[in-house]
Amino acid sequence: NADAAMYRAKDTGKNNVQFYTQEMNASLEEKLALMEGLRTALHGEQFLVQYQPKVRLETGRVFGVEALLRWRHPERGMMPPDQFIPLAEESGAIVAIGEWVLLTACRQGRAWQDMGLHPITISVNVSPRQFDDARLVARVRRALEISGLDPKWLELEVTESLIMRDLQQSVAKMRELKAMGISLSIDDFGTGYSSLAALKSFPISSLKIDKSFVRDLDTNSDDQAIARAIISLSHQLQLRVIAEGVETTQQRSFLHESGCHDMQGYLFSRPVAPELIQGMLEGQADAEMPEWSMA
Ligand code: C2E
Ligand code: MG
Ligand code: MG
Ligand code: MG
C-alpha cells in the first residue's frame, strides 16, 4: 500500500515522492476512514447537538443558544467539530449534516417554546460549502416549516472569510436569507479580512468577537484595543456585539466596561445537552435576581 502511494506520487511527474512517509500514509488512511465514517454517521444517528447559552448582562438572562455539533464516533468516542467538520466540508457530507443540525436546532427551539418557556434565539453555524449550496435558502425555509419555528428566532452564523470569497454573491444570498425573516451574524469577527466598506453592506444584525482576542484580554493591551475597536465599530454601525470564549470575571468586566453586554463562554456555561438549557430557562423564568446579572 505504501509502495502504491509512492508510485502514484511518482506518476504525477513531480519530484514529490520524498513527501510520502509511512506516517503520512497512516494519516491519509485515517482521514479516508473518517470520511467514510462521516458518510454513514447520519443514518447511524451518531451526531448530537449541544447548546451553549448566550447571556445578556443587563438582564442576566440567557437570550439565545448556539447549536454546536458533536460526533459520537463508534470507536473514538465523542469527537469535537474541529476534528471532522473540515473533512465533511472537503467530502461534501457537510451539506446533509448541516441540514440535519438546522432541523434539529429549529425543532429544539420550537420544543422549548411549546413548553411555555420564554423564546430564545437559536444560532446555527454555516460553513462555506453549505453556504454555496444552491438549495440553502430552500433548506432553511423547509427546516422552519417542518419545525414550526418562527423565523425571527433563527440566526445563522457565518464567517467573514466565507463572505469575502465572493462578496457580491454572498451579500445577495444573505439578503435572501434575511428576507425570510431570520437574522445573520458574523462569527469569529476580526480573524478574517473584510474591509469596513464591505462590512457596511452586510445585512447582519450582530458581530461575534473571536475568542482569540478574548483569551489574553487581562494581559495583552493589543487584544484590549482590538476588542474595544470591534465593540465601538458595532455600536457605530448599530449592530449588536457578542464576545465568545469568555472564561474569567476579569474578561467579563473588561468587556462589560467597554460596552459589550452580550457574552458566551465557559464562565457562563459550556455547550450542554438540551435538557440542561431547559433547566436554565425554567430557572430564570421565576428568578428575581437572575444568576448572571451585572445590574
Ligand atoms: P464557533 O462557531 O466559533 O464556536 C465557538 C467554539 O468555541 C465552540 O467550539 C465552543 O465550544 C468553544 N467555546 C465556547 N466557549 C468557550 C470558552 O469559554 N473557551 C474556549 N476555549 N472555547 C469556548 P466547538 O463546539 O468545538 O466548535 C468549533 C467550531 O466548529 C465552531 O466554532 C464552528 O465553526 C464549527 N461548528 C460547530 N458546530 C457546527 C455545525 O453544526 N455546523 C458547522 N458548519 N460548523 C460547526
Ligand atoms: Mg459560531
Ligand atoms: Mg465563533
Ligand atoms: Mg471561533
Automatic annotation (TrEMBL):
Residues 31-285 form the EAL domain. It comes from the Bacteria. It is found in: Cell membrane. This is EAL domain-containing protein. It comes from Pseudoduganella ginsengisoli.
